[in-house]
Design a protein that fits this description.
Blueprint (H helix, E strand, L loop, with lengths): L14 H9 L1 H18 L9 H13 L4 E6 L10 E4 L6 H6 L6 E6 L8 H8 L2 E3 L5 H17 L3 E4 L17 H9 L3 E7 L1 H4 L12 E6 L13 H21 L17
Helix pairs in contact: 2-3, 2-5, 6-7
């Protein structure tokens, strides 16, 4: 299956497609469990940023075993040595793998604290220093703790990878963004890099138990959006602009159009 429906939902799968889609979980889970087990042990000895090459092998390999073809498009204004908040549309459980290796930055993640209880995956995240978002405290306390943890990562020279929608898309399109992390980015004066993923929804999406090989997945790292000197009452504009840039890529992918304002990335046809 390699067609896209105009509303973002994949077309109906055949029995063979479904059988292949279920079988694809076997190599995927074997790769995930083996690599995360190794990295969990290694991270007890070395700081995660010192062995980032392992995370890159794992994340790139996870996309490869899904049968996907990955292509990166990186805006020339992104400094390989800079510190950024990479804000990505939330498609599926492989999102961090899809985005990670496109730039050389060490990208620390942000996850719900409940996920840390998961075997293997949760152990790995904890060992890597992934930032937990707690649901057992007040929103004010959760925001304070999140801000402190992000500040600590920035002081270490690390970038952040986050999903401002807060939940996976149900139709492939980009949902509303939550503003909390954008406020923290402004406080720390960290530029926002909008990251748009197209094609990965067709590989795997929420509500379907299949991994569908043979798709091309494109990752667009757009021009950084500065936060330094932005007034507090303008946070909403940063949120809106970040979402607009990402949604333009995703919508053009499904609607067969061309993104008109692409700056250094060029007008890439999404529907071809």
């Amino acid at each position: 299956m390699d067609e896209r429906a105009s509303n973002g939902l994949p077309t109906e799968m055949s029995v063979v497609d479904k059988a292949v889609g279920l079988a694809m979980w076997v190599p995927g889970l074997l790769w995930l469990s083996s690599m995360m087990s190794v990295m969990t042990v290694v991270n007890r000895i070395f700081p995660p940023h010192k062995v980032d090459f392992l995370a890159r092998i794992y994340t790139r390999g996870q996309v490869v075993v899904s049968g996907s073809k990955l292509r990166f498009h990186v805006h020339p204004d992104i400094d390989p040595k800079g510190i950024y908040m990479f804000a990505q549309n939330h498609v599926n459980m492989m999102d961090h793998c899809t985005c990670y290796t496109g730039t050389p930055h060490f990208k620390q993640g942000i996850e719900l604290a409940a996920h840390f209880k998961l075997p293997i995956y949760g152990w790995y995240m904890k060992g890597r220093g992934t930032i937990p978002v707690r649901g057992d405290v007040s929103p004010k306390q959760a925001y304070k703790e999140l801000s402190q943890r992000i500040r600590a990562e920035v002081e270490r020279g690390h970038s952040l990878l986050l999903f401002p929608e807060g939940t996976r898309t149900l139709d492939g399109r980009v949902g509303p963004f939550q503003p909390g992390v954008f406020r923290i980015a402004r406080e720390l004066e960290i530029p926002i890099v909008p990251v748009a993923i197209t094609g990965m929804f067709e590989v795997m999406h929420k509500g379907a138990p299949y991994i569908n090989p043979g798709h091309r997945v494109d990752v667009y790292y757009e021009r950084p959006i500065p936060t330094k000197g932005v007034p507090k009452n303008k946070i909403g504009e940063i949120v809106a602009e970040t979402r607009r840039v990402i949604a333009a890529r995703v919508d053009a992918f499904y609607d067969g159009g061309v993104v008109a304002t692409t700056d250094g990335l060029g007008p890439i046809e999404q529907g071809s």
